[in-house]
Amino acid sequence: MSGRRVDAHHHLWQTSVRRHAWLDGEDTAAIRRDYTPADLREAAVGIDATVLVQVLPDLEESVEFLAIAAAEPLIAGVVGWLDLTGSPARDLERLRSAPGGGLLKGIRHLVEPEPDPRWLEREDVLAGLAAVRDAGLGYDLLVRPHQLPAATAAVRALPDLTFVLDHLAKPPIASGELEPWATDLATLAREPNVVAKLSGLVTEAGRPWRVEDLRPYAETALTAFGPDRLMVGSDWPVCLLAGTYAEVMDTAESLLAELTPAERDAVRGGTASRVYGLAP
Fold first, then answer.
1. How far is CA 225 from its chain centroid?
2. Mean of the pLDDT values across residues 37-56?
3. 195 has a pLDDT exceeding 90
4. Backbone angles phi, psi at 9, to 5 degrees
5. 148-188 pLDDT, tens per residue?
6. Which end of the chain has fewer CB atoms surrounding its CB within 10 Å, N or C?
C-alpha cells in the first residue's frame, strides 16, 4: 500500500460540554459518550491525516474544533459550521481569526433535516454559499436523495465553488434500491466543481450488512465521479452504530480493489489532500 491515507470525514463530540439532542434516541445509545482526539488516535491506525467535520449547527463548536485540530497533529483540516442565511462573512472572520483558524478548509450546514427540499436554491442560501466561495473554502453537502436536484441547482449556480458530497447523499442501501438516487447522483456528478465521499455507507445499510450490499452504490459513485473526484471517510464515531473504524476502512479497501494503484491512492488520500488543501 502506498500514498498518503486520509480519513476525509470524521467527528468528535463532548456531550459533557454541549447538548447533542440527536443522541437522545435509543438507536444512538451505543455512541452516547464523549469522543476525543485520544479516541481518534486509537481508532485511526494506519491513517496519516484526517478531516474533522462539524456535528452541531453551532459556531462555537467550530471554534473549539479548530483549537482541537491545532493541538492534534493527526487532524489536518476542519469543516466547520456557520449560518449561511445570517452573517456568513462575519462568522467566517470569527473562525479564521480563532486559534487554529488556518486549518479551516470548508463549511457545512445540516441540509438533510431542512423541511424545504429546495432549501439550497434559496437566494439567501446561495448568497451565503457565495461568501464561502469568496473566502476560498469548499462546501460540504449533507443531503438526502430527494434533495439531490436542489444540490445540483446550487452547484450549477456557483461553478467556482467546490462542493463535496457527504455520504453519497445517503442512498437507500438497506432497501437495496438504486433509483432514482443513481440517476440523480450521475446528474450531479456531471458538474465539474463537485466531488464526493465514500463515507457513511455502513450506517445506511444497517446491521447486518455485507460488503456486497455496498458494492452497487460504490460502483455507481466510481462510474459517476471517477477516482480523482472521490475520497474515503470513516464517519467515525457515527459508523460505530454499524461497524468498527477498522471494518469501515477495510471495507473501503475491498470496494476499491479493482482500481489501479494510482486510482486507489487518489481515493485513499490524494483527492482529499487536493480538494481540502491539506498540508503534508
1. 16
2. 97
3. yes
4. -160, 105
5. 999 999 999 999 999 999 999 999 999 999 999 999 999 99
6. C
Neighbouring CB atoms inside 10 A of 259's CB total: 16
For 55-73, the pLDDT digits (tens) are 999 999 999 999 999 999 9
Enter the C-alpha cell of residue 8.
476525509
Pick from 136, 166, 185, 158: which is nearest to 51 by CA? 166
Rounded to an integer, the average pLDDT of 202-230 is 96
How much is the pLDDT for 280? 81
Position 2 confidence tier, pLDDT thresholds 50, 70, 90: low
**DSSP calls for the chain:** --S--EEEEE--B-TTTS--GGG-SGGGGGG-S-B-HHHHHHH-TT--EEEEE--SS-HHHHHHHHHHHHH-TTEEEEEE---TTS-HHHHHHHHHHSTTGGGEEEEEE--TT-S-TTGGGSHHHHHHHHHHHHTT-EEEE---GGGHHHHHHHHHH-TTS-EEEGGGG---TTTT--TTHHHHHHHHHTSTTEEEEE-SHHHHH-SS--HHHHHHHHHHHHHHH-GGGEEE---BTGGGGT--HHHHHHHHHHHTTTS-HHHHHIIIIIHHHHHHT---
Through-space distance between the first and last CA atoms of the chain, rounded to whole angstroms: 18
Amino acid (1-letter code) at residue 242 = A
The full DSSP string for 17-33 is TS--GGG-SGGGGGG-S
What does pTM read for this prediction? 0.96
- C-alpha distances out from residue 50 to 21, 67, 169, 171, 235, Å: 25, 15, 21, 24, 11
